[in-house]
Amino acid sequence: MSESLINTQEVKDLITKVSGMTNDAGNPRMKRIMQRLISDLFRTIEDFDVQPDEFWSAVSYITALGQANEAGLLVPGLGIETFLDLRMDEAERKAGIEGGTPRTIEGPLYVAGAPLSKGEARLDDGSEQGEVLFMDGQVRDMHGKPVAGAIVDVWHANTLGGYSFFDPSQPKYNLRRRIETDGEGRYTFRSLLPSGYCCPPNGQTQKLLDQLGRHGNRPAHIHFFVSAPNYRQLTTQINIDGDAYLHDDFAFATRDGLIPQVRRSTDQAAIHARGLNAPFAEITFDFVLHPESAVAPKTVVTRAHAEAA
Ligand code: MBD
Ligand code: FE
User: Fold this and answer.
1) pTM of full prediction above 0.90
2) What phi and psi, each to the nearest 5 degrees, are found at residue 65?
3) What is the 3-state secondary structure (H, E, C) of 219-237?
4) Ligand 2 centroid vs 51 CA: distance in angstroms?
């Protein structure tokens, strides 16, 4: 090809008009971003000589992705949610905020409004069999001072890797709770060890991952929002050590400092003391929060969330 089409005046004028640059209405920031996005798209089409059939298959893909409610699944799969985390980390470093518990992505499967209890909770209702997990820990500030009254909002998958609400076979708010820390900043809960998540095998996200030669698996993990007045909200996850996908997460959420030891209890006396009849797992994990800051970006992200009906 001789000359670049996107450098011609005709196409430059087209992009200028498309992005509303020739009018005084609308949103100036949106116009500039759209101008960049459209330019980059045109450049990509030209550089790769994208054929109309290929282009229209991409349009169909986006349509199907939205219809399947998988946009929020493709985003972490393409590393975009991790990139947003890295940007937040960088902004915090520039604001002098370092250390504390690392953040990692929220993912698409949070449901707002889970039952709230003080100090402790049980996340499962006993209807599912699996390895019992007891998890506990303390919420502290950067000086090691306990944060009483913090809210630990926890959610995770069941033993099949499914999340309640999105998996309608599970009870309402199954494996989802909000726990308020006690006077010493402590929380504790009983649940079942989750399994890893796998993208719907016939879904739109997996369809694109297939084209990239990638799997759609996440290692077993447990999600948390940890919040308290005057502290920066922490969005994070812990991974269950030993999972085959621990360092091969399709959503790129595994981080150093978020892989606590899993203690296995096989001692009969300990099993009976817990009222159980099989070995169980225990995890202790503390959350360290930063004080709220006027010079760093806000940590409470506005994002559409489901709420169980
Ligand atoms: C999950 O459970 C999850 O946490 C993410 C980020 C993506 C898909 C499923
Ligand atoms: Fe998850």
Assistant:
1) yes
2) -60, -45
3) CCEEEEEEECCCECCEEEE
4) 37
